[in-house]
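Quick one, tokens below. Sequence please?
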């Protein structure tokens, strides 16, 4: 038997390529879960998804003079601000920004580790009050972040792993920072739930409960479909049906508890 050692090598190469690919996939997934040097177990889903409201003049201050500073959508998703590519929103002096998590919930960790991260950017370090809400109506004060990238431990405010929050509201501290005309107040790049659970995909099941009425029709004959709730009194549904010589099929809702029949009209 003359075995050719080269015969096996293509398979080995394929296996190696696959393992390498698998390894690279794992590495790249691990990297996508780290944003601004902070590990977010739920990855991209961790970040705020929609703007509920942006109220830059809430504290009585002027609108940020620069129009590009007034785009609240720039606080959504993962942090993406760079000094060359400014992607944040300016709160305004005492201004407010309310964001919502759509595909994730902020929750407590059961200990004092950070649960919520606020990415504040720009040359100034400006303080921001943080409130959280489960329903967008009842708000809980969870303290203040002291500028730059800072976190909140919501367990310290009596919440835990069973509390699921969908809303975060940020309010600039009007007594901190210089509040320039162009960029007054804190500048928010992103808001992320470190401690988060992904929102369950709620399957939508449409159950159509129907009774199918089938009857042989004769050409030219007329039929009337009727319903009854007591099998004694029958009420017409729609106009008479003209026979085609075919078997006619009609479907009716049964959730009302009705019975159905088709009668031949004289
Ligand atoms: Ca999200
Ligand atoms: Ca915590
Ligand atoms: Ca941003």
């Amino acid at each position: 038997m003359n075995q050719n050692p080269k015969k096996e090598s293509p398979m080995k190469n394929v296996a190696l390529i696959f393992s390498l690919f698998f390894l690279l996939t794992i590495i790249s997934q691990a990297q996508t879960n780290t944003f601004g040097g902070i590990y977010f177990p739920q990855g991209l889903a961790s970040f705020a998804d929609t703007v509920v409201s942006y109220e830059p003049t809430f504290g009585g201050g002027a609108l940020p003079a620069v129009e590009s500073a007034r785009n609240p959508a720039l606080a959504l998703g993962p942090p993406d601000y760079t000094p060359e590519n400014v992607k944040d929103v300016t709160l305004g002096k005492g201004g407010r920004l309310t964001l919502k998590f759509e595909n994730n919930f902020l929750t407590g960790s059961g200990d004092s580790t950070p649960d919520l991260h606020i990415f504040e950017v720009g040359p100034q370090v400006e303080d921001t009050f943080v409130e959280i809400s489960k329903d967008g109506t009842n708000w809980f004060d969870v303290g203040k972040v002291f500028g730059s990238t800072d976190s909140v431990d919501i367990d310290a405010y009596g919440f835990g792993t069973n509390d699921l929050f969908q809303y975060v509201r940020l309010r600039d501290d009007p007594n901190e920072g210089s509040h320039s005309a162009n960029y007054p107040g804190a500048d928010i790049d992103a808001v992320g739930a470190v401690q988060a659970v992904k929102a369950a995909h709620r399957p939508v099941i449409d159950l159509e409960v129907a009774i199918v009425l089938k009857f042989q029709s004769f050409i030219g004959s007329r039929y009337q479909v009727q319903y009854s709730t007591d099998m004694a009194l029958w009420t017409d549904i729609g106009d008479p049906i003209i026979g085609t010589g075919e078997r006619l099929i009609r479907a009716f809702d049964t959730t009302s508890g009705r019975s159905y029949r088709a009668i031949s009209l004289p």
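The two ends are 93 Å apart (CA to CA). Residues 40-198 form a domain with the Jelly Rolls fold (CATH 2.60.120.260).
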